[in-house]
Amino acid sequence: xxxxxxxxFAMLGSYTLSKRGLRFTVILAxxxxxxxxxxxxxxAYFIHQSPAKFIVVLLGQGVSSLTNAFVLxxxxxxxxxxxxxxxxxxxxxxxxxxxxxxxxxGFMLSPALAKxxxxxPSLLLVxxxxxxxxxxxxxxxxxxxxxxxxxxxxxxxxxPPFISSLKDVxxxxxxVLLVLSFGIVIGVFYGISTLLDQILQPYxxxxxxxxxxxxxxxxxxxxxxxxxxILGDKFHKYKEMIIVSFACATxxxxxxxxx
Length: 259
Fold this sequence. Notes:
With 259 residues, the chain is mainly α. The protein is 83% helix and 0% strand.
């Protein structure tokens, strides 16, 4: 349900960011994230009938999935609004890095805290507390723009109408090709991440091992994000970097599939 809901509402996330601004989008995403974790906890802890428990937990997962449609739009916008032109690639990479770091923490934390089904409510309570804490930190301090513009370009920047921008990018063959390529790579990554436990079980690995493998996959991506951000700001060879990255990813996926 997680990625399916994202596909349905990704355009809504982009539209909200374009029309309502960075602060509104970030606070909305943090609110939905906190609410979703408490729904899941309440479903797992307070409801004891199996069908109702599943429905409530699934509802919480759906709300969390909706959060994804808003939060994944944020790193490039933060980079444009808060950083100068020579810093934006690194800023975007760092924003994506922390998203991946959260996934790594999830891979590590979940099997450590939930060793048996009765431990799941405790895990969900920890998640709810963390997400609520993030919301409470963001609410008073996060703003659309810094007190001083990072560059002259950021002062003069005007976002074109959302529908007009959407039509322009759909008509751009290079952009469509890039979206399809990126979508395939991300789809394979999330597919492996979701099914990693089932993939590794026949080879004698348990849930904790799967969590460790998942964390290592994400850590490798974090290192790659840092390197890509530094190289992008220094050389501005974005097309070449994309080709090399996709070629390396393809080789690694093929090697993984053949093992």
